Amino acid sequence: MPEPIVEVHDLRKIFPTTTGEEKRAVDGVSFEVAPGRIYGLLGPNGAGKTTTLRMIAGLLTPTGGRVRLNGHDPQVDRESAKRSLGYLTASTGLYERLSPREVLNYFGELIGLEAAHRKKRIEDLIHWLDMSAFADLRCGGLSTGQKQRTNIARALMGDPPILIMDEPTLGLDVLTNRVVLDFIRAEGARGKAIILSTHYLDDAEAICNEFGLIHDGRIVGRGDLAALRAQSGRTRLSEIFLALCGEDQHVLSGVPGATDHSSTREVE
Amino acid sequence: MKGYSRIWTVYRKELVETLRDRRTLMAMVFVPVILYPILMVVLMQALSSEKGRQEESEYTVVVPNEAHKRWLDSVLAREDAAAIAEQKAMEAAAQSLGEAAAGATGRAAFRTQLGSKQIHVVVAENPGAIWDVIAAGMAHAAVIVRPDPGADGVDHPNRVVQILYSDTNPLSEVIYRQLNIILANEAERIVRDRVTKLAGTSDVLSPIVTTNLSTTSPDKQFSKALALIVPFLLVTMTVTGAMYPAIDLTAGERERGTLETLAVSPVPVGQIVAGKFGVIVTIAMVTTALNLGSMTAVIQFSGISQLLSGSTSATAAIEEMEAEQTVRTEPVQPGTPAALQLENIGRRQALESAMNRRTGFVATAAPIVLLAMIPFAVLFGGVMLAVCSFAKSFKEAQNYMMPVMMSAIVPAMVVSYMPTIELQGPLMATPVANVVLLMRELFLGNFRIEAVVIVLLSTCLYAAAAVALATRIYGNEAVLFNDVGSYKTLLLRRFIHPQSLPSAAFALLTLALIFPVYFFVQSSMVGAGSDWMDVCQALSTTQIGLFFGAVVFLAWYAKLDLRETFSLRTPTAIHVVATLLVIVGVVPFSATMQQFLYATFRPTQQMEEMSRQMGALMGETPFWAIILVFSFLPAVCEEFAFRGLLLAGLKRSFGAWRTIIVVGLIFGAFHIYVHKIPPIAIMGMVLAYVCLRTGSIWPGVLIHFVNNSLGAVAENWAGSGDHRLMDLLGLPTGELETLDYSVSGRTMILIAVFVVGLVLMGMTRGAGHPRDPEETRAA
Q: What is the chain A residue with the closest CA to B487?
């Protein structure tokens, strides 16, 4: 097992609110990801996934805890940390009045790639992600799938060793969904450390090597599929998810005739 | 360099994207290049066709009886004859006088003139219903003469003429005005006839005839008219041009979700903001340039200049020729000295006018005006960037833009409507108003270096603060993500995270807020006739209230570490020694430096006069006030503001030397008199250096105190005949500013001690500052 390249230790985020109350969005999250591994950060809406990922990417300042990306603290060595990182979310937009090729070139320049290297990288990405049909159209006119492929290419421009993907397949059709997942798997196989957050548990089950189940800002289950099965006594990831989040009781109690077999609820 | 290349990358990309935006193109190109000229042409045509319509229209004037009609017709006939005679005289004059007389005819060109052919006098069918006829709009006016011209012949000595008209009918108004003029002319003719009958001549009626000749050429008059309108138009156009890119590059980016990708790219926020800021300023300036160009073209070619100045345009060559053989404008006997003088004046006017017309005054003023617009564009680019950075959507940003637009347009409008406002006192530091006034002065050809410097420096300070604020807001997480808290958390103290040092944005913004207040308080309390008490009051107020009070309060509010921010440390022993050495030589140093600067850049007479007044003021100021108010207060308060907050904010993001230079320049800018800026800026740099090297504010406070007090005391004593302190310090006696540059041996030694002190500081490490190799090298 290689050394982890992503280290997250006891990460906390408390948001102030104008009413004076505190909102503990993330409360002591820790995990590590080694090169070549795909880490699935799963949890219900509002569990703190996105906040966690944003803190890892250095977009939010943690209230407490520690993040290391390739050895760099994103709050201190901002540039080095961000250089190691490709970041992609469902809400990420594109510059509508630029073409995918121009977008890629822009981010290539911001990363600081040499002109020749940049050009080759753009061609490669357009080829791999099958973007040549729309590479020179304005992004504003692209379909959701085409946009997301462009976004993936954008995140991969600098060939970073770490990828953070927050709901990368949200709203995609089956075909593009498949392209994206294959690409994530391939990048994992090429040695990248990938953190994936998604609602599609089947997808996660298919491609992730490791999981962290997050609920109310805390990790409630961790390890590979086997470990989670052992911890929860369930086989399918969706069942494990419900069991570990302590939500299956709610779900089942309302259904007549359902047997209660959720007594194995565990909390870290 | 890498930073600049990335700013350049951001700049290029944003520019391309902005230029592909239809809204920007609309505001930037369509409005000035197409809409303007069309509007102008339409306006011109409407004006002239309106005049044409008025002159071509037929007017019906109702009178009660035939006698009235005869009387009025005869008045109209006489008026016609007089008008024709006058016209002939003018044409004759025009042939012999050329240009100037042509101007005179041109001036009347837009006044409607009616002849008797257009005025039909009609006898009312029912004299009792005249009122109703006019009120119903069946005739344009009615004339009733008392006593009735039919009853007592034509030559009654005193007549009363009543004109009935309708205010709501435009043609009725035209004929009413015209009848008034005609009747006044008729009255004058009658008076002249009567006087001629009695005295044989009507000359007694003109004991004095005035003829007026403005030394300002018609083109200058035109530029005066423009100076009132154009700055306002340009300000409006510039903010309109900057608005869309400002919204699009900030709130638009956030709304479309591209901000997040930019935030995770390995580029510091400052560089992204700098690139965006550059695009906004570029677009604003291009908009301004296109507007100005379009205005110039419209003015030059549409003939609107005639409308404004009343001069006619002939070709330049003919004018020049005519100007050479010109020109007598006045009916004064030639040959007399007065007439000769008038002739010369007339020739000069014609020449100047021809020269101006040939180069096109507007065309020559345009580049200068464009230059003056740059600080304005920079300021509003910064302000808009900062304001839009708060907004989370395009719509929200548009709402925020309203007050920003108003804050640009309203001052410009107020200034435009008040031609007597001058660029002086606090106005020089008032954002927007100062730029508009400066533009107006430039348009009129007034160039005052101190006004230009103050306006530019203050505008740059405000713009820097705005950009720094934009950087701070732009990178803030509450603004980056819609779902993370409110940006109220940026401003309320309980949400502010304690920090050891202020950010550059915070420091610059604090000083930008203080600057106009300081300027205002200072100039409102210290007027022309103020004595030392007034000056003491003003100084105490600004020093304690602003430089100390406001600065320390804001630092506390922002939860800064006051000890770190204001460098409240005890200096090391070696730094105390170094400080003492600096103190020994500081007064000779600053005196020599000032002399050198004044010898190199001679102050104007006005500046010398101010210095003399200041010197006189110091002479009558009591000793305690010199020590306490003029020396101690500034030493403590100014050090806290400039070497405390400002230096702490800048040193974090600037290098040591850039910090020293910027602190010095801003310190200089705070001193109202322009000729004092360079020496005070240099002292500011020395003090910044001292604070950076010693890591303590106290040596600077001490040096500042000695510099202020010792020099003033020496001058004060010298003023009462005691030159011992002056001699001891190696200072030249007499008026500092008026002396030539000369340095005595004693002065040289003292300055050497001063330099040794500074070098000693540079060689030893102060508390709280890691050693910087660059600093040491330069020291």
A: A18
Q: Helix, strand, coil: what percent of chain A each, to 5? A: 40, 25, 40
> Between chains, do A79 and B266 touch, taking CB under 8 Å as contact?
yes
Q: pLDDT (tens digit, 9 = 90+) per residue, A138-192?
A: 998 998 888 888 998 999 998 999 999 988 888 888 888 888 888 899 999 999 9
Encoded tokens for B670:
């705070």
Number of helices (H) and strands (E) in chain B: give both, helices first: 35, 4
Nearest to B543 by CA among B675, B674, B447, B631: B631
Q: Closest approach of chain B CAs to the CA of A86, in angstroms?
A: 8
Does B260 contact chain A (CB < 8 Å)?
yes
How many Å apart are CA A82 and CA A101, to the nearest integer?
22
ipTM passes above 0.90: no
CA distances from A111 to A18, A226, B10, B301 (A): 37, 40, 12, 51
Residue of chain B minimizing CA distance to A109: B9
A97 contacts on B by Cβ (under 8 Å): 16-17, 20-21
CA distance B643 to B650: 10
Domains of chain A in sequence order: 1-84+162-268 (3.40.50.300), 93-159 (no CATH)
* Rounded Cα–Cα distance for residues B578 and B572 (Å): 10
Q: How far apart are the two ends of chain A, measured CA to CA in Å? A: 25
All residue ranges of chain B with pLDDT < 70 are 1-2, 93-113, 151-155, 212-226, 299-365, 447, 475-492, 494-495, 525-530, 602-603, 606, 672-674, 719, 730-743, 765-779
Give the best residue of A92, A148, A154 to mutate against chain B (max B CB count within 10 A).
Answer: A92
To 10 degrees, the CA torsion angle through B533, B539, B542, B544?
-100
Q: Which residues in chain A touch residue B13, judged by CB atoms under 8 angstroms apart?
A: 95, 98, 102, 106, 109
Region label for B646, one of left (φ > 0), alpha (ψ between -120 and 50) or beta (otherwise): alpha
pLDDT of residue B330: 39
Distance, in Å, from the CA atom of B415 to the CA atom of A14, rounded to the nearest integer, reads: 50
